[in-house]
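#lab-general

N.A. 3:47 PM
ok so I finally got the sequence cleaned up, no stray characters, all 475 residues accounted for. can someone with queue access submit it? mine expired

B.Y. 3:52 PM
send it over

N.A. 3:53 PM
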Amino acid sequence: MDINQGVSIALGGDGELAPPSERVAPILEGRAALFRAHFELDPGFSSREILARLILTNDDATETFDDQQLVDSDSDPLEVDSTFSFLIDGEHIRPDTTFSLELLETDGGGTDPSEPPRLPEEGAAELTVDPGPREFKVVFVPGHFNGTTLTITDESKQRLEDALMGASSVETVSITWRDPYEQSGQLESTEAGFDVMDEVRESDGLAPNHYVQMFLNRDGCCNDADDFQWSGIGGVPGDGMTGWAVSGRASMVMARDGDPGNSTGTAIHELGHNQGLSHAPCGGAAGPDENYPYQEPDFPQAGIGVQGYNLVSGRLYDPAPGSAQGGDYYADFMSYCWPYWWSDYNWAKNAVRAKTLSSWDRSTRELTAQRFVRAVVRPGDSTPHWTVLRVHAVPAEGSAQRLAGTTAYIDHGAAKTPAPVFAVDLSEGDRRMLFVPLDDAVDLETAALELAGSFRARTRLRDVRRIGGPVADRR
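B.Y. 4:20 PM
back already:
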């Protein structure tokens, strides 16, 4: 027996419970779930109707769910209707939920009805649900540059929203479709696109746990064709509330045929980066996760490990080679291979990140307008893209994501003041965003910023684009 909210989690078999400590991912509070009971028939079994009964209990309330079918062969794990299956609403998946499943004869024949096959063998077992809440907050920004537009119909919105709900390890997906960002000229560079999303974050007053994703129409949107040869690009930030992590929760997607609903896979991939995921090792993706568990020769390259399930479409994704629709096997969303679904490895990581960010909605920690200089750098490039940002966040503290080997100096003319440098990688092209905290006392008209060490560059701050001013409370 297993439960599947996106990836299969074993509950047990032959009367024995699977230890919760050995689960490949947490069971998520409030997210709908597919329970399945698989079976093999003993020799001499006679074809007949069997009733499976799933009982869920919480807060002294008991719900009973029945599935009856004619059993004449072993169940097929690739067919939902072949197993005893129960699609259960998220309201029944709670930390105090217990479960039991039993198989019953409908005509008195076969197994002694006083000892029906069941899990557990006696009574009920704790489902051991990981408490939430988990909410995925995404703001989609149509980017209209140089006269280009995007085709955003109710149907295309629904395709993208359904894709996110099916593929997100949360109970709630909250999507905002923002009014288009309009610019008469072309988008000058990839780096300038991140400036736009920071501008949106500040002007719209978004909280630190919002993700921002901008869609572009490749047909004329952008200035330098060589700089926009990606299908998508995004930050790979940590899970903190600091300015560099907040700014890094942004990504861009080239909408196929100008319709965001045609680019659901790329959108999910880049939002995966925004949740801190590296590439899965398939298709030549740069900077693959060295700890990814499903790699050749023991597994298909970037395989998904366990069976996946899309709660919205009702589709199964089996990890076995030869089982995929449109390809040999399913690879992880974070790879460059197709077709794709989530591995249990990355699904579980996303569940942890979602719980962390959702907890901020109840945080009493004060957020203030933090000022930074951001430099987007590329290997061998001594002229980064500079921006002065105001990000509503917590003060820079600790060493997480602090860049070793590079130091910043604020040059006031008469003296230089050292400052730490924090880094957020970008998902494509070996680009990296460097963030230097900038005290409000620094005069932008007279000061300069210098990077020294492993990366060297210098700029006068009065020449740098500025985004954001005083901002309101956004806890």
